[in-house]
């Protein structure tokens, strides 16, 4: 018998093909399970909020960020429901199939928290677990601050808790990062919408959701959307079909509602004065990828590892995910789902 040398190139290709096949099988399995997700619109806080829900057990609210939808949590909905939780993922006000009030002043964190309290009441629960990413994380911090009596525990992805700054939010960001910061560019009504309109909706989704090494700081006299690159190929964690789900919904609802969250930031700052230096007292787990947007540049790394962060959030666990980016619950769905479940399980012992 003549043995032949191992062809490493062929082996590498074969493993790559197997990995791709396994990913496709898992994605197809998850897609089929999404058909079991129940959708409804619920009247809360004077508006209608669309929710996707599945499962029975302790209530878990999954809060998305910008520019996302309930669909950002498609992996976690199935996973958590399968492990004994009633999972509810809303389109936050202004997004997707939820109502979108016209005025930017209707998008303060107080409005969003009011919407969530109404959802918790609707489902007949005294308390809920809150899991939020990006703007959903900000809202998660605020509902934990305003109504700790209604929160069993908080899991925050990407955005850490920030106590009220000495000066208005946009002034602070402009001083630190200049006019090229996306937060500053999004302030003027209509500006970002006009810039986004130069591209089709799928391209806008790709520019924002697939960003890796770019920081949201555009050069002078350049719009953020023009600055962000459009990837030539997709990463393994998302498909064109999945991106199209976001694109089609934004084509229906537009970007003004989501952008109004940024336009209400200074109003938030004014209204948050009574909670100056207040602490988050609910059990909390903070998860961030070490390649998240601004993790190094915006100082997130130093802050989350500091005693200052822990002084404002005493009951805190910090998890830093290697090679994790901003939309981490989609990028690393199994790992993030398990991190969330481990936290919920610890807190559920006391239920």
Automatic annotation (TrEMBL):
Residues 58-333 form the AB hydrolase-1 domain. Keywords: Hydrolase. Transmembrane segments: none annotated. The keyword Transmembrane does not apply. GO terms for molecular function: epoxide hydrolase activity. InterPro entries: AB_hydrolase_1, AB_hydrolase_fold, Epox_hydrolase-like. The keyword Hydrolase applies. Belongs to the AB hydrolase superfamily. Epoxide hydrolase family. PANTHER family: EPOXIDE HYDROLASE. This is Uncharacterized protein LOC107424564 isoform X2.
